[in-house]
Design brief:
2-enoyl-CoA Hydratase, Chain A, domain 1; binds 3-hydroxybutanoyl-coenzyme A; binds 1,4-dihydronicotinamide adenine dinucleotide
């Protein structure tokens, strides 16, 4: 079957892109489109042309897999094809449905009239691939939708609804019906335009949208200032702004050339490679080699959540947000009331910010029912346990659930550290037990580490992976170990941050380096946000269990303990590693600095100047090294899964592709050698993992593991 199918509707030629699953504009599609434009322009039996996508969408843009490859010589670039399409004398109408993204929207903008169906998403998301719209999008969108709207859409990469696109003038006509109705309307529009005999309305020749920039010379600088925080460390967002600015100062042909030059500079850079890796990693993560896509899943129509504290409350909201009824269990009525009130307050805060309607809040609250009796969960499809992090409490609870719940229920635990297999052993159905490790705040963070126990059934894994998607989360399948993937690696990072403070750095130095690298905040601001008391309690438990700190290891909690002894638990007490005043902005605190200096002395460190480079390497290389161990042990299926965990659970910058991809861009030999040096300088905990050493010796990366 041809990549561009041609049909006739009377004197209208209908071109359907045919490249499943998303009609990506790969070589055969471009070749087909190019040839059709040439042919139909000369065909005396054709009055006008309609372009659409076969299958489930119009077009999701360039074929991302082709980036970095060279097309055969006769296949022209999309930009040139669209210039010819736009220049046609015969009217060209786009019949848009499903998705028109990136080159897909650029194609539509190259047409003279746009008809769009319901539930359609339109936008230029190239920036989230580290590039810019390279086929005229930065030149045509501002002319059609206005400079401010185009800037916002192109720099955020946000896809808008058909209604928003219509309001912005991107779409000329909305049709309420299925694909066939959209095509019929587009054919009718094409016939009308052809009959009218007026010259086509070409986006590139329009100037209405550019006017708003002419009277406002500071528009672009103001925009650059407003995006500085979001765009830090990246080139693509700024290149997008430059191109839109060029649209307001250059003739179309020059603007298109400028855009092309900027596109070429970006497309092979590490930023774009990292973001392409992120894109494919997020899709790969759903594929489990030994749990094929056709594995049966169990229906999930309702849920139970046990414990309505920090996590349980958030998890209940996640289910309600996805439209699933959820029963929340607490053992005491007072704790239940407090938990439900917290949920209501949480929703109310979103309503007051205008991000949720009161009606929608009421609908979601209506899906949440509280109870204090476990038997209320008898008919539930999935139960997520989020009670205290204590093995005895959890085992006792799972034994009771085993008696109460119907056969086939999925019994999930939100434990962040405990052994899922041991929890499962408290039931007579370990095959139905799985970990669903949400991240805090559960209703915001997108990551779910789905922890596969030794006996977890494939069907249960498939169901929970599918459920993650239904809940709007990114599910990553991991194995059982202390801290699973994310927190086990985090532990390495936090430990080195603490050691660096003992040796000479201050929390604000470390946080600055990590923030500038691209994480949303540094380790100390993160601890203050999560609550320093959490780690403090864990350390105390460990010390008790071990009968003191082991003499052969360096203890990383010396300063943190002193901070906690003073009740400095972080943001919730107004003070932690930093002080907070009334707000949430961390400010360095001389009292903390005094404690640090005093402790360094007690521990016998002559404080030294620590470079930004050392801070970055000491914090991140051990984290990567632990990732290598996790990979070697099979706790994560792929290095790219670890990247997904870090991007969605901890805000590791997408433009670096996640820690494992980033490590590949540095070179594993460099990382292995640096870890060997750290091992000598610091201690055995810095020893490079065997997998890291092997890959480094073979000149390979984690992508080859
Ligand atoms: N190129 C190649 N493959 C693509 C693709 C693209 N543009 N878009 C999606 N795919 C693939 C996915 O990798 C996935 O493959 P798999 O089944 O083998 O894993 C399959 O298509 C289905 O994709 P999703 O799972 O993402 O499907 P959804 O229905 O959830 O989402 C979508 C559909 C909203 C279109 C989403 O796929 C998407 O956002 N795609 C990327 C859109 C984009 O960034 N376009 C810009 C491309 S760059 C460009 O156009 C440059 C131009 O300016 C010159
Ligand atoms: P929390 O202390 O805020 O909430 C626990 C709730 O469970 C309390 O409201 C308590 O009353 C209730 N509870 C205790 N035993 C119960 C029982 N037998 N029946 C019914 N309710 C009971 O604790 P948090 O922080 O929500 O943690 C819950 C679980 O989630 C733990 O396993 C924790 O390790 C895990 N987790 C916590 C994260 C966090 O950032 N707080 C992140 C990810 C996982």
């Amino acid at each position: 079957m041809s990549a561009v199918i041609e049909e006739r509707r009377g004197r209208i030629a209908l071109l359907k892109l045919n490249n499943p699953p998303v009609n990506g504009l790969g070589w055969p599609v471009r070749e087909g489109l190019d040839a059709a434009i040439d042919r139909l322009g000369k065909d005396a039996d054709v009055d006008a042309i309609v372009v659409t996508g076969d299958g489930r969408m119009f077009c999701a843009g360039a074929d991302i897999r082709e980036f970095g490859t060279t097309p055969p010589e006769h296949v022209r670039g999309l930009g040139k094809i669209l210039t010819d399409l736009e220049a046609m004398e015969k009217p060209v109408v786009a019949a848009i449905h499903g998705v028109a993204a990136g080159g897909g929207l650029e194609l539509a903008l190259g047409c003279h009239h746009r008809v769009c169906g319901p539930k359609t998403k339109l936008g230029l998301p190239e920036v989230s691939l580290g590039i810019l719209p390279g086929a005229g999008g930065t030149q045509r969108l501002p002319r059609v939708a206005g400079v401010a709207k185009a800037l916002e859409m192109i720099v955020s990469g946000r896809l808008v609804s058909e209604k928003e696109a219509f309001k912005a003038g991107i779409v000329d006509e909305l049709v309420d019906g299925d694909v066939d109705a959209v095509i019929d309307a587009a054919v009718a529009a094409a016939e009308k335009l052809a009959a009218a005999g007026v010259p086509p309305r070409r986006s590139g020749e329009r100037s209405d949208g550019l006017k708003e920039a002419q009277g406002n010379p500071s528009l672009f600088d103001d925009f650059r200032k407003s995006m500085a925080k979001r765009a830090r460390g990246m080139n693509a967002p700024y290149a997008c702004v430059r191109c839109v600015e060029a649209a307001t100062t250059m003739a179309l042909a020059d603007g298109l050339q400028y855009e092309r030059d900027e596109f070429v500079k970006l497309v092979d850079a590490i930023e774009a490679k990292s973001m392409r890796h992120a894109f494919f990693a997020e899709r790969e993560v759903a594929k489990i080699p030994d749990v094929p896509a056709d594995t049966p899943t169990r229906p999930i129509q309702n849920a139970g959540v046990i414990g309505c504290g920090t996590m349980g409350g958030g998890i209940a909201m996640v289910f309600a947000n996805a439209g699933l009824p959820v029963t929340v269990i607490e053992s005491e009525q007072s704790a239940l009331d407090a938990g439900l009130e917290k949920i209501a307050n949480n929703y109310a805060a979103t309503v007051s910010k205008g991000r949720l309607s009161q009606e929608e809040m009421d609908r979601r609250m209506g899906l949440i029912t509280g109870a204090t009796d476990l038997t209320e969960l008898a008919a539930t499809d999935i139960v997520v346990e989020a009670v205290f992090e204590n093995m005895d409490v959890k085992k006792e609870l799972f034994a009771r659930l085993d008696k109460v719940c119907k056969p086939g229920v999925i019994l999930a635990t939100n434990t962040s550290t405990l052994d899922v297999d041991e929890i499962a052993s408290a039931t007579s159905r370990p095959q139905d037990v799985i970990g669903t490790h949400f991240f805090s705040p559960a209703n915001v963070m997108r990551l779910m580490e789905n922890v596969r126990g030794e006996k977890t059934a494939d069907e249960v894994i498939a169901t929970v992976m599918k459920l993650s998607k239904t809940l709007g989360k990114v599910g990553v399948l991991v194995g059982v170990c202390h801290g699973f993937v994310g927190n086990r690696m985090l532990h390495q990072y936090l430990r080195e941050a603490m050691f660096l403070v003992e040796e000479g750095a201050l929390p604000q130095d470390i946080d600055r380096v990590i923030y500038d690298f691209g994480l949303p905040m540094g380790p100390f601001a993160m601890c203050d946000l999560a609550g320093n008391d959490v780690g403090w309690r864990v350390r105390q438990e460990q010390i008790k269990a071990q009968g003191g700190t082991p003499s052969n290891a360096r203890y990383s909690g010396t300063i943190a303990d002193k901070i906690c002894d003073l009740g400095r638990f972080g943001q919730k007490t107004g003070k932690g590693w930093f002080k907070y005043g009334d707000g949430r902005t961390p400010t360095p605190d001389p009292d903390v600095e005094a404690i640090i200096l005093e402790t360094s002395k007690e521990l016998g460190f002559a404080r030294r100047e620590i470079s930004d480079e050392e801070i970055l390497q000491r914090c991140l290389y051990p984290l990567v090294n632990e990732g290598a161990k996790i990979l070697d042990e099979g706790i994560a299926l792929r290095a790219s899964d670890i990247d997904v965990v870090w991007m969605h659970g901890y805000g590791f910058p997408r433009f670096r592709g996640g820690p494992m991809f980033w490590a590949d861009t540095i070179g594993l030999q460099t990382i292995a050698e640096t870890m060997q040096r750290f091992e000598k300088e610091q201690g055995p905990w810095m020893a490079p993992s065997p997998l890291l050493l092997k890959l480094a010796a073979d000149g390979k990366g984690f992508g080859d593991a």
